[in-house]
Amino acid sequence: MSAARAARRFFILLLHPEARRAGAPRQPQDNAAMAKKKLVYIWSLRNAAADKAGQQIDYKGGKRYMKSVLESLVEALNDTALGDAYSLERVIYDDDANSPRDREKLAEYGFAYEPGKRWFYPPELRVQGRLVNDLLLAMASEYRREPLDSPARPAGKRAFEARLRETLDGLGADLVVLDGLLVILDELVRPGAPYCRRIVNIHPGITRADSPYERRGAYATLDALYGARGHKVVDWQTMESVAVEPVRMTGASFHYVDNGVDSGEVIHDVLNTEIDERDTILELRWNNFNRSLFPALHEGLAMMAGIDVSVG
């Protein structure tokens, strides 16, 4: 067995103990000396809305459920060894109910769950015994209302990060997971800052700069789809593109957050998503979530926790 296959088997057995051979159940870990790390999850609801999270989407002539990254994480905390290592303390979102742009992007969902209306995951979803909806905390990045060249914008961003730090400190956060947060953090993640290398991101693309599959930024999935069709977009405003050799694979990266765009040190990545040039953007997103992104998140968290298992 190759080293790569052995590593994948390790994480399959770690995260899905039912995959062990019959008669060799996972032995419970001795957690007496290991306190759970406090996990805080931060996302932008407007990004999940663009993914159609929590909805049935059109898929190759049928329908498939678009599971959100948060729902996948909750399932892993409930059903795998990750729940022995982490406790989910809060789910923070930065969307601004007073922003016309945010209201437009969240028109299908709203800013909080309302019975009978669409939401990003089943409203009864629980994590480690608690309702996920009870963990939600709105922390609007209000500075985004200001024009890009407004002198009030940098000060507003600093104030937002200060509020975020105060909240994380109050929660005693050990690790912060970003998922589709449409804000670039600055003060919190600078070298020497209190949350430097304590904030990680799960990204729907390979972020290693030296990889032929590298897809950073907000358009990573669309970039991969264009790449499979033999095009490279050089201007996302005009959609100007140039011809390139087709690349028909993509994946996901779990990486530390720095001051750049998906440029932090990679902790773990998974390249396991084949691209059909006939895919729609949502079909490719569904495939990449299920084949690469969810595994990258779960396996990356397991690596950070240093969880060990003995293969029987």
Give the second-level CATH assignment, the architecture of the domain at 36-183.
3-Layer(aba) Sandwich
Gap between N and C termini = 16 Å
Please identify the structural class as seen in this structure: alpha/beta
Strand order of the largest sheet: 7-4-1-8-9-12-13
CATH topology of the domain at 36-183: Rossmann fold
What is the succession of H and E elements?
HEHEEHHEHEEEHEEHEEEEH
Gyration radius, to the nearest Å? 20 Å
Helix content: 25-40%
Count of helical stretches: 8
GO biological process, one term: 'de novo' IMP biosynthetic process
Keywords: Purine biosynthesis, Transferase
Pathway: Purine metabolism; IMP biosynthesis via de novo pathway; N(2)-formyl-N(1)-(5-phospho-D-ribosyl)glycinamide from N(1)-(5-phospho-D-ribosyl)glycinamide (10-formyl THF route): step 1/1
EC number: 2.1.2.2
Describe this structure in words.
With 312 residues, the chain is α/β, with parallel strands linked by helices. It has a domain at 36-183: Rossmann fold, CATH 3.40.50. It is 30% helix and 21% strand. It contains 8 helices and 13 strands. It has a 7-stranded mixed beta sheet with strand order 7-4-1-8-9-12-13. Strands 2-3 form a two-stranded antiparallel ribbon. A hairpin with a 4-residue loop joins strand 10 and strand 11. The radius of gyration is 20 Å and the shape is globular. The two termini are 16 Å apart.
